[in-house]
UniProtKB/TrEMBL annotation, chains A, B:
Stated name of the protein: ArsR family transcriptional regulator
Pfam families: HTH_5, Rhodanese
Organism: Streptosporangium carneum
One Gene Ontology MF term: thiosulfate-cyanide sulfurtransferase activity
Segments forming domain HTH arsR-type: 8-102
Classification via PANTHER family: FAD-DEPENDENT OXIDOREDUCTASE (PTHR43031), PYRIDINE NUCLEOTIDE-DISULPHIDE OXIDOREDUCTASE (PTHR43031:SF1)
Rhodanese domain: residues covered: 131-220
DNA sequence: GGCATCCTCCATAAATCCATGGAATATTGT
DNA sequence: ACAATATTCCATGGATTTATGGAGGATGCC
């Protein structure tokens, strides 16, 4: 048999594992979801993920080692972004596989998102109804994420401002709400808020991440 | 802003991270590649991966926690298998993304496989030439992997036995060799051996893993 | 029942990872 | 040159992971 070169094999697989390790922390996965929405500075990422600045920086170094992120220096600040859509795809697939095979995920998902029976629409339905013009599409992510790229024709109002700015939305129109992706709360919260104010609001079944990966058009 | 429920969010992402952790060790990735070829007992996996039995068992428990593998008991032994093709897809995508974005991977890959200029053929070419009948397709994986599923019409001779059984291959025919997947050495070694004996041998550009994931037919 | 086999669980030591505070570095503005 | 800001680097303690032996459980064979 021989199988002499066990060292190079381990080296190759350990290199793969470096990328695996990048996916091995919940905080890093939260950072990846944020980065999938567009580039951000370390400081912004740390705040958005609820992390200590140095902790966030360390996690970003881990992601960088795996080649998952790239940086752009602009004066004194460093903007991180995903290194490619294949990284976003890997991230999305990991979550899907985890949901498919890990019993704890659906439970945690419902506990986080609130398993209300809110209606969902698919990307295709949204596109069709947007063309037909009988709905408003509402993006409830933070402004910078909306600005970095959103569904063409969507109105952008962050959830936090939605209660105050609800009058910007037409009264008689059904509202389709979306946010970052399949496991993002923002749209859930927004739909609950809108429904509480007597609006007809439904959710896109996932969000910007899946929309972009599916090759649908993005406006910036 | 509020963002009260930070606990459930962390819980959800930590659950995703459990699946991420399953990909965070080179040895576990080696086990995944083996499992992608078909089910195996703990003992067989440990031997094939060069691991202590208890270590292998522990790694398999980690994979099981992530839901990546399922088991089947048969008398005194336990057979592990991948829980679904989505797991194999995730595994394959991880390796691809690592190769795309991590500089160390191509280097480690060449060091392991030997970057000889051997010719490759695609799955489609292989299919066409197999139909045309002007080639022999050779599977050089261990017998149990060949038996668990192989390219229809392929001859199965493990690399270790190839030198002794080379006369089972027709002389005048080009030989297309394949093994487990894109990063598996077996086909590289086999092609070098065959070429050294004056045979015309080329490699399938990847292997069984990618063949199956692409939806090509598998014989068992 | 008694025994062998295969696997999992437990305990342990070494290595690694995580979060965090403080120091060091780099860039910009004065 | 100096100060201010944004980020990375470094050191530390606590938690987690890894490899490994040995004990324990389950199953099948005699």
């Amino acid at each position: 048999m021989a199988e002499v070169p066990t060292r190079p094999k381990a080296q190759l697989y350990d290199a793969f594992a470096v990328s695996g390790k990048a996916l091995a922390s919940g905080k890093r996965l939260e950072l990846l979801e944020l980065l999938a929405q567009g580039e951000r500075t370390v400081d912004a990422l740390a705040k958005a993920a609820g992390l200590n600045l140095t902790t966030a920086s360390a996690h970003l170094q881990t992601l960088k080692q795996a080649g998952f992120v790239a940086i752009r220096r602009e004066g004194v600040r460093v903007h991180y972004r995903l290194a490619g859509d294949d990284v976003a795809l890997l991230f999305a697939l990991l979550r899907k596989v985890a949901e498919n095979h890990q019993a704890a995920v659906p439970a945690a998902r419902d506990a986080y998102l609130g398993d209300d029976g809110t209606t969902e629409v698919t990307r295709e339905e949204l596109s069709a109804r947007l063309r037909a013009g009988d709905v408003v599409v509402l993006d409830v992510r933070p402004v910078e994420e909306y600005l970095a790229g959103h569904i063409p024709g969507a109105v952008g109002i962050p959830v936090g401002e939605l209660a105050d700015r609800i009058n910007e939305l037409p009264e008689d129109c059904e509202i389709i709400v979306y946010c970052r992706g399949e496991y993002c709360v923002l749209a859930y919260d927004a739909v609950r808020l809108l429904a509480g104010r007597g609006r007809r609001a439904i959710r896109l079944s996932d969000g910007m991440l899946e929309w972009r990966l599916a090759g649908f058009p993005v406006a910036a």
